[in-house]
Amino acid sequence: MDFENEQNKNIDENEIDNFKIDSNSMNAENIKSDSMNDTQEIPATYNQQNSEINHEMPRVEFRSNKKSLGKMVKRFRRRMLVSFVAVALIAALIGGGAVAGIMKYTNIGQQTQVINRYLPLSSDNNNFNLITNIAKIVSPSVVGIDTSVSYSNGYRSALIPEGSGSGIIIDSQGYIVTNNHVVDGASKITVNLSDGRKFPAQLIGKDAKTDLAVLKINATNLIPAKLGDSSKLEVGELAVAIGNPLGESFAGTVTAGIISGLNRNLQSDYGPVNLIQTDAAINPGNSGGPLVNSNGEVIGITSVKLTSTGGSNTQDPFGMFQSQSTPVEGMGFAIPINEAKPIIDELIKHGYVERPIMGVSVQEVTSQDAAQYNIPVGLYIAQVQQGSGADEAGLQAGDVITAVDGTKVDTFDSLQSIINKHKVGDTITVTFWRNGKTLTAKVKLMSSSNAQ
């Protein structure tokens, strides 16, 4: 570390001893003659010229031994500096197991300012350039997305800017993944590349349940991001978010934090969702951008930031936090890339996600409902879709489903979790109650794309 004003010189024992000798040798006589406060009176003089008497008043002159005083100050500063460096080294040794510190010293006048910055430790101990290198590798694969909607007043129509978000280039053919809530309802989508180029984008497909969408642009020299393995994540490891918070003015913003939590099973309007939690700063416009690990691999797609559990202040496309109102900080969420990959493939292949369904609309029957209406706890069938597997198996409105494949079901989530383990065309065994009797039926699962 460099220190200005000779602060980079080491102080040996002789210099410290000399300081002590000089200090002891400063007796009362020396202090009297060398002190800044020492004064000496200059006698008055009288000059007689042309019969006039010029009277000069006594003058008081201040004298100081600047050379000796300067040496004292320099040696005192050196002694203080040695103590400060020793304390800093001890503190670094104690705290070295948790963080790596970068200490920068700058002189402002006669004061030394110490600026501390801390980076998470990595396995290769190359912390100084880690985030910088991640940004250089991943940023060319991150795009900005602007959306517009058509507006008509009856006389003329126009495109009105609606919002903005981020996206990730996933292959050189021009496919880009983003959030469904970024592009949902848009009449026009524009993709802004990191090199300044802009392209109109085609919506290939979207899935509201997972909040994912795939776009495509016709462009060359694209740099796709490398997708990682979110199953290998551990709480506490580095997480870097890259995106365009608040739009194009802040394009390519890089923020860093850690993985705060895994497998956050949160409830959405479309069922439970499994998310990665991070404290890396995520703001409106980051949605659809990458969450990256220390290897520069995309391990998540940023989707939601929780600022308050009150509905109005929450960037909450899933509608997860609507009943409470507690302000929170540093709670961002991302879709794990391992769960996003099959959805992305389905969207590219079909334009939609094919999911198995029974073809029924159900309502949960609680224990209170069961006691009141004298029916079993389970899922009350409110409607059966015509031509569905449930319809062909003979299920009717008013039946109460109590089990599927031998597993008790009493909530929509429990039913959905069993169905999600199957593929379209599989057959499940449904146990249900009807008019006081317990019956079973074989139901063939149909594709959600056929749902009316």
Automatic annotation (TrEMBL):
Transmembrane spans: 81-103
Gene Ontology biological-process entries: proteolysis
Keyword set includes Transmembrane: yes
EC number per UniProt: 3.4.21.107
Domain PDZ residue range list: 347-436
Basic and acidic residues bias (residue ranges): 1-20
Keywords: Hydrolase, Membrane, Protease, Transmembrane, Transmembrane helix
Region: Disordered, residue numbers: 1-24
Name of this protein: Serine protease Do
Phylogenetic placement of the source organism: Bacteria, Bacillati, Bacillota, Clostridia, Thermoanaerobacterales
Originating organism: Thermoanaerobacterium butyriciformans
Pfam families with a match to the protein in the record: PDZ_2, Trypsin_2
InterPro entries on file: Chloro_Bact_Ser_Proteases (IPR051201), PDZ (IPR001478), PDZ_sf (IPR036034), Peptidase_S1_PA (IPR009003), Peptidase_S1_PA_chymotrypsin (IPR043504), Peptidase_S1C (IPR001940)
Family per record: Belongs to the peptidase S1C family.
SUPFAM superfamilies referenced in this protein's UniProt entry, alphabetically: PDZ domain-like, Trypsin-like serine proteases
Lineage: superkingdom: Bacteria
GO MF terms, alphabetically ordered: peptidase activity
